[in-house]
Amino acid sequence: MNPIVQLKKEDIASIRFSHTDVLANPVSVLLREKDMERALILGNLEHTKVRITFMDLYQSTYEVETTVWAITEESICLKGHLYLPKKAVLSLC
C-alpha cells in the first residue's frame, strides 16, 4: 500500500482522476454518501473542516483537510471553488 500524501486543497486542481469508482462495494458507496452529507452540514452550519481521503488516476492516495461547501451529483465542492469527484473519495472523517 502506498503512503497517504498530505495535500493542500489548492493542489487538488492539478490532480487527474479516474472515471471509475474507488469503492466497489455498494454499501460502502452509500456510507460515503451519508458521510458527505454529514460533512456538508458541518461545513455550512459550523464551518468545521473534515479530512477527505481520495485516490487519483494512478491510485495514489491523498488526504486533505478542508470545508465542504456543496455536493453535486458528481462532485464535492470545497472551499475556494475546488471540486473533487465523488468517485475518487475513499473516506471522510
In short:
The protein is α+β, with helices and mostly antiparallel strands and 93 residues long. The model has no long low-confidence stretch (mean pLDDT 95).
Structural write-up:
It contains one helix and seven strands; from the N terminus they run E-H-E-E-E-E-E-E. With 93 residues, the protein is an alpha+beta fold. It has one domain (5-92). The strands form two sheets. A four-stranded mixed sheet has the order 1-3-2-7, with helices on one face. Strand 5 (75-78) and strand 6 (82-85) form a beta hairpin.
How many H/I helical runs? 1
Strand content: 25-35%
Task: Give the termini separation.
Answer: 20 Å
Order of helices and strands: EHEEEEEE
- The main sheet orders its strands as 1-3-2-7
> What number of structural domains do the residues give?
1
Give the overall pLDDT as a whole number: 95
Structural class: alpha+beta
Q: Shape, please?
A: globular
Share of helix among residues? 10-25%
Q: Low-confidence stretches at least 5 residues in length (pLDDT < 50)?
A: none
Radius of gyration: 12 Å
Number of strands: 7
Largest sheet: 4 strands, mixed
Main features:
three-stranded antiparallel sheet; 93 residues; four-stranded mixed sheet; alpha+beta; globular
